[in-house]
Amino acid sequence: MESHKERIRKLVELTNSEKRGMLFFLFLIVLILYLPKVVHRYLRDDLEMNGFQSQIDHFSEDRTEERTTPSRKELPIHSFDPNTVTVEELQAMGIPTFLAKRIESYRLSGGNFKRAEDLKKIYGFDEKLYVRVEAFVSIEKKTKTEEEAERKPSYHLNRPVVMDINTADSAELVKIRGIGPIYASRIVKYRTALGGFHDVMQVKEVYGINDSLFTNIQDNLFIDTLPLVTKIRINNVEIKELRTHPYFRSYKLCNALVKYRIQHGNYKSPEALRNVRLISDSVLNRITPYLSFE
After folding, report:
1. How many whole angstroms separate alpha carbon 44 and alpha carbon 120?
2. Which of 122, 155, 168, 199 could form a disulfide with 172 if both were Cys (CB 3.0 to 4.6 A apart)?
3. Distance CA 110, CA 157 (A)
4. Residue 235 DSSP class
5. Residue 117's Cα: distance from chain center in Å?
6. What pLDDT, in 10s, does the model give residues 196-251?
7. 0.90 exceeded by the pTM?
8. What is the pLDDT of residues 48-69, one digit of tens each?
9. Residue 174: helix, strand or coil by DSSP?
10. Rounded Cα–Cα distance for residues 145 and 155 (Å)
11. Angle, alpha carbons 72-77-79 (nearest 5°)
């Protein structure tokens, strides 16, 4: 009797022809699975190469067309002075717009064309264009008086900007070297809160203005001999109102001033403030210009 193992071996054992058939069947499966991928990749590469070649051909045609076709139609040029000619006139002569604007900007920045060759100073004004316009450049010669006037220094241009710190607005303050829109706005706001400056040195109290900056701008500022500052009626003001002033932010100081007034009567003069415990000489000197004792 056959053993169990032998029966199993006979069941799974294949003949040579069956083995060949199995291998062929496996080959067909692999071919079916991978053939579409191989074909797709081959076709894609072929399409990409064709597209790349098409781009090369197209680029070659464009380059050939560039060489055989004029870049722009040359317009007639007439005599012109580069120191006075307008952008529109240059454009009408076929000068590219960007070059026409650069010529105008060069003049506006203080540049002057003394000879035709000076056009080459303009970035982008190439030799080919210069040869085309050179014969038409006609620069008007200045008189001796005009030349002397140009050489004569303009002292008024170097004159420092000077302004009354109590009347200058933000637009005027930014004219001072070192004062930008932010500082100008802060100065105006602080001046309003104070009720006006009575001393130029108070500008140093504006947030952000350090000693170095103040030293640079100090000569640009002045205060009228009779500064118009808004005064606080110290004998009528209440604590809340008093604290809106930058010099009276301290609640203790305001409370002490009002309580002393209630207990001892109105203040007759700045000296009377010395009786308030929190009023030192420095504080008194600081606040006195803003107080009215009526």
Report:
1. 53
2. 168
3. 14
4. T
5. 35
6. 999 999 999 999 999 999 999 999 999 876 667 899 999 999 999 999 999 999 99
7. no
8. 445 445 454 544 544 444 444 3
9. coil
10. 18
11. 155
